[in-house]
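=== RUN LOG ===
request id: a7f3
mode: sequence -> structure
chains: 1
length: 278
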Amino acid sequence: MEQAMHYHRPSSVAEAVKLAGTHSDDRMLAGGQTLLPAVRLGLFAPTGWIDLAGIAELRGIRVDGDDIVIGSMTTHEAVSASPEVRKRIPALAQLASGIGDRQVRNRGTIGGSLANSDPAACYPAGVLALSATVQTDRRTIAADEFFKGLYETALASAEIITAVRFPVPEKAAYIKFKQPASRFALVGVCVAKTANGVRVAVTGAGPCAFRVKALEDKLNAKFVAESCDGVSIPTTGLSSDLHGSAEYRAHLIPVLAKRAVSAALMTKPLARDSYPND
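=== RESULT ===
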C-alpha cells in the first residue's frame, strides 16, 4: 500500500526546524517553482512537504545600517518593486524583475532560488557579485563559500535560509543573455564595485555561479567598460549544450561584463539623505 504524502505548514522557523528533525525525508517548500514541476515530471517523490510560506518572520525587506536585509521567503516581485532595493541597489531590483515570467516572480522566493542553486538562476550571480551573506537558522555563510556545484550549496541537511544580507555597492549592474523560452540565463554577468574592490560573478555558464578574477583584476585597475576588452575566458568547466557551446559562453562573459560596467556607470547613486525610511 502506498503511504499518503503528508503536508506541514509551520508558523515559525523553530517549528520548521523541529518538523525537519522529525520528518527527515520531507522536503522544504519555498516558492515551489522548481520542486513542484520536478514532482510532476516524476524526477523525485518526497514523502511530504514542510511549507515555509506560513512563516511571517521569513518575509520582508529592511534597511540595517548600510545593508539591505531580505527575508528568504520574499518573492522576486517584492524585491523588484521594493523602494529600498530600487534606491540603494537598483541592480538587484533589475535582476529580480527579469526572473522568469509574472507567475514565477510572484511565487518564487530568493531563499528558494539560492537553496536550489540552479546553474542558470539569476540570484546566485547577484549574491556573489554583491558580496552578500546568507543567514540561516544556524549560522552566516559568505557568498564565496555558499555555491559548491551543480544544485549543491554549503547548506547542511534541514538547514533553513532565513535572510540574505546585501552590502550597498558603489555601483553595480546585471546583464543576462536569456534563453527565450525559459528566460533563464544562457549567460548572466553581475558586476559590482564594492568597498573592497570590484567583483564579477557569472551564472548560466557552469555548474554553479562563479567569479572571474581576470575581469576583476582589469576592472580594479580601471573601472571602465573598455577594461573588459581582450580578456579571454578559459572554456574548462564551462557548460556546453544545445543552447550554446562552452566556447560561445566563454565569448559572452566579457561581452556581457562590458555591458554591465557601462550600465553601472550610467546609474547615478542616490544621495544618502534622499534614502527612504532612514
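=== NOTES ===
Residues 136 and 161 are 4 Å apart (CA to CA).
Residues 9-47 form one domain.
=== END ===
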